[in-house]
Structure formats: structure tokens, C-alpha cells
Specification:
Layout (H helix, E strand, L loop, with lengths): L13 H15 L5 E7 L11 H11 L10 E7 L4 E6 L1 H4 L4 H16 L3 H19 L14 E4 L1
Parallel strand pairs: 1-2, 1-4
Antiparallel strand pairs: 2-3
């Protein structure tokens, strides 16, 4: 499901956004981790001096991804007009998943994005993130979906 009007339709269709949201839901059925996708067309006026990573970190906290039970939130943040993305993982994940693994996932996504295959890049990134989360943080009997699976779209 898409949580806002699709302002990025030149990059992803509503159908694409639905596929992304469904992929997040499928991952979360198999892991105690929480995954969110946040897409911005561009940085806001007050964010111009911030790096893409700083903007992504701001969103991470705004979306309350840092308050998951086991600190297992992952934000896949995209700035489409700048052709930039960031993957932000909470401390529970970073204690078990190496920087090299995150870099490998980022390289996979970046390769697809460089060819303007945005849906493919996002789905490949989600698949790699999901496999890692499922292996390191399998779903628990008492697990609940702590955060929405909707794709967040911001101007």
C-alpha cells in the first residue's frame, strides 16, 4: 500500500510501489526485523546543507525506527532527483551485520539505479536485506509488526 500520493511516478508506478510494500510485508513475516522504505523527490529547503545520510538519519528517527523492541529497524531511504540512497540500520542489526555486508547491498542497489532500473534495485536491495534479517533475526513466536509496511513518499 502507498501512504501518500505518488509524486515520483516518473521513477516508480503505483503498481511498483505496491510490489515494494508487499516485498516488505513478506520479509517481515519471516524476521523480527522491521523494514521501511522512504522516498523523497528532493531534499527540503531546510535540508539543503545536510548530507543525504543526515537527511536519512533524520527520517529514521522521525519514523520512530529506533524504538523497535530489539533495535532491528532498517530504513531504505531514496532521494530520487539527486540519485542518492542510504540504508540506515539500528544498533541491534549493526552489532551482527558487518559494514562489508551493508556495502555489498548498497553496491547491488547502486548498480541497478545507475541503469535507471529503480524497481529492480529496490527489490534486489530488499531481497538482500531480507535474507540477512531472516538469517540473523528470525521471526519469534511473539513477534508483531511494529511499523507499517507502507512505502512513504515525501516531496
Amino acid at each position: 500500500m502507498v501512504s501518500r500520493k505518488n509524486f515520483i511516478s516518473e521513477y516508480l508506478s503505483n503498481e511498483d510501489l505496491g510490489r515494494i510494500s508487499n516485498a516488505v510485508g513478506e520479509i517481515e513475516k519471516q524476521t523480527s526485523g522491521e523494514v521501511r522504505i522512504c522516498i523523497k523527490k528532493r531534499r527540503g529547503f531546510l535540508e539543503k546543507k545536510l548530507t543525504p545520510r543526515e537527511v536519512a538519519l533524520k527520517e529514521f528517527f522521525k519514523l520512530k525506527m529506533h524504538i523497535t523492541k530489539d533495535k532491528t529497524g532498517v530504513l531504505f531511504f531514496i532521494l530520487f532527483e539527486e540519485h542518492k540512497f542510504e540504508i540506515i540500520a539500528d544498533e541491534g542489526l549493526n552489532s551482527k551485520i558487518s559494514l562489508e555486508k551493508w556495502n555489498k547491498i548498497s553496491n547491488e542497489v547502486g548498480n541497478s539505479f545507475s541503469k535507471e532500473n529503480y524497481l529492480d534495485g529496490i527489490l534486489k536491495g530488499l531481497d538482500s536485506i531480507g535474507q540477512t534479517l531472516i538469517r540473523e533475526f528470525p521471526v519469534k513466536d511473539i513477534d508483531k509488526n511494529e511499523l507499517s509496511d507502507d512505502v512513504i513518499i515525501k516531496l
